[in-house]
Design a protein that fits this description.
It is a single chain. The protein has 105 residues and is of the alpha+beta class. The chain folds into two domains: 8-56, Immunoglobulins (Immunoglobulin-like); 61-105. Helices cover 34% and strands 20% of the residues. It has one helix and four strands, in the order E-E-E-E-H. The chain starts with 11 loop residues before the first strand and ends in a 7-residue tail after the last helix. Keywords: Disulfide bond, Glycoprotein, Immunity, Membrane, MHC I, Signal, Transmembrane, Transmembrane helix. Residues 2-49 form the Immunoglobulin C1-set domain.
């Protein structure tokens, strides 16, 4: 439904497919602009429902993207710290050589 009006002409219907529990489902989809998302509702009719259900579009969770960004940020910080420690050790070794110390091999 868009603004309470049935929009069957805009609906693309998928096949009837099985669920793992022996029941079946079908998919329906439409193309809509993101700014119109509040105008749409999905009407579901099913024998198990006393009356048809109306469902609003729920935004997708960005949790996975957030977790990935945090992991990448942590890896970048760890790599930068490891690089700094390695660089500092190299600098200290060069300074010792410049002062005449020989590091035993």
């Amino acid at each position: 439904l868009k603004d309470g009006e049935v929009r069957d002409q805009d609906t693309e219907w998928g096949s009837i497919l099985p669920n793992g529990d022996g029941t079946y489902y079908t998919q329906a989809s439409i193309k809509a602009r993101p700014e119109d998302k509040d105008k749409y509702r999905c009407r579901v009719e099913h024998a198990s429902l006393a009356e048809p259900g109306l469902f609003a579009l729920e935004p997708k969770s960005n949790l996975l993207a957030l977790v990935l960004w945090v992991v990448v940020a942590i890896l970048v910080v760890v790599a930068a710290l490891a690089g700094f420690v390695f660089w500092k050790m190299q600098q200290d070794e060069r300074a010792k050589r410049a002062r005449g110390y020989n590091v035993a091999s």
